[in-house]
Amino acid sequence: MTMTTPLFYGFIFVLGLAIGSFLNVLGLRYRPNRFLLASPVWSGRSRCPHCGKTLAWYELIPVVSFIYLRGACHTCVHPLSVQYPAVELAAGATLVAVPFYLASLYDAPLFAANGGMLAWFYFLSVVWVLAILALILMSIIDYRQRIIPDEIVAVIAALGVVKIAVLASYDQVFLIQQSFLQNYALLGQFWNGMVLNHVLGAVGALLILGSIVLITRGKGMGMGDVKLGGALGLLFGWPDIFMVIVFAFLAGTLVTLPQLLWKTKRLNDAVPFGPFLAVGALVTFFFGYTIIRSYFSLFGI
Prior knowledge:
The protein has eleven helices and no strands. It is mostly helical. The longest helix has 27 residues, at about 120-145.
């Protein structure tokens, strides 16, 4: 079973559904005064959040159980949140889409056909899969509790260090595309050094988001968003992180502006910015080059 077979992608999609179910457990049980992976968070039987009934095994099958139960608890018939299948499907899609996209971006099949080793590709795939899964979990928690756990920020920052190490280790073997903006990244780079660009990404994100916190006196966003931005900057590097922030603000505007116009939200209402940073990261990862190319093509660049 190779990475080019439908069987492989089917297997990792099902695995992703199971991981998504676990992310739901972590996100829903997390409490700010507990360590993210503390025993009370991930251990114990799952129960209906409304009537407290312990769920049977057939009520815990990712996506399938939600469809079978018609989106409601079997006992109290209270509607279940669509978050359950949405997160499971998002995690499953992540495990499929990330290696598929990276294989296309780096021409991994062609490289392997010519006798090249693909250890770098597997490392990068794991790094980005874990990073996106961490962003999904962060989004659940930030949306529900308005807090971004430091543990998730630390994981994303650590993955950034691993990514830098992988790129540096194989940089002398062949050219790995270091930016998701591809050749357009040259328009915003200050240094050719890969490590320096990633450090600059972290510093740049901290300065941009930190300035917003200072200007708005913490009403625009919190320090958790700043720390998350710094970790993403280390992972994406410069100038990719700038696009992450731009897309995050665009996503936030598209969501909150209609709510303000329809008066379902007020201007001083708190809005979790972490999920928008996650959206910005995903857009940059998968569509950054396409969007930036379309933009510059308007000017003949």
